[in-house]
Amino acid sequence: MHAKKIDKIATAVLYTIAGIIVAILASLLLYILVKGLPHVSWSFLTGRSSSYEAGGGIGIQLYNSLFLLVITLIISIPLSLGAGIYLSEYARKGRLTNFIRTCIEILSSLPSVVVGLFGYLIFVVQFQYGFSIISGALALTVFNLPQMTRNVEDGLRNVHHTQREAGLALGLSRWETVIHVVVPEALPSIVTGIVLASGRIFGEAAALIYTAGQSAPALDWSNWNPLSVTSPISIFRQAETLAVHIWKVNSEGTIPDATQVSQGSAAVLLIFILIFNLSARYIGRRLHAKLTSAN
Questions:
Q1: pLDDT, tens digit, 9 for 90 and up, residues 30-49
Q2: What number is the average pLDDT over the span 269-293?
Q3: What is the DSSP letter of 171?
Q4: List of residues 6+ apart from 270 with CB closer than 8 A
Q5: Which CATH number does 40-292 carry?
Q6: Domain coordinates of the chain in residue numbers?
Q7: For residues 173 and 248, what is the distance between their CA atoms, to the nearest angstrom?
């Protein structure tokens, strides 16, 4: 009886702690949404930001965030897939592999401000890309690559060894087994990790302040020259993202409705991050269900 009583007390304590954490998180989310959603409108989502007058929007910042996300994923996904496949399928246990994993752990623990300063010194100054989308994307790749690599490696390691043995027994080479058997089996966890990383990239601010810049020049939607700084598809132009815009509005506060713009922008940013997180779970479950039914 004494042991059962202690077990019930411990269970109640754990449920209470979990409930408190959920309540705090829910209250923060509700506070941001309640304060911000009344200021969100179509004109706010598509309009240009204003430096001195009230009534500005976040259209360019929202587009910059999405465009920067796409460029970062184009760079990050092949690198993380290659590194994850090597560590899971080809790397032998030894000092070199341990050193690589140690470097990944160190990189994953770096503060985003440090990554931003590194990106400023290397990509902005040394490579002379200036404050641009490509500088921000490369800095975010350094910031996000360790987590994506670990997600890919963990997903591949969770594939049962019998899947590999079955591929080899059919006469497939090791590389063909990895590409046609192991990677498709690990695809749900890999896609989930990529979508979760997308939410992290979309909400990043500190690393982009020093690399992508703090201004959002007007875009010429009739100009599709990727080398032009006014082209919406140019990677060599400055691009203030939504997260950086929130920081800038709160730090400078030069517009009369700075509070309203900040609250509305925060609500939009939160909604996009929630979409990324919820869609990661949904896509992962759907892919897992399809693979299970196919097998």
A1: 999 999 999 898 888 888 88
A2: 81
A3: T
A4: 29, 32, 33, 36
A5: 1.10.3720.10
A6: 40-292
A7: 54
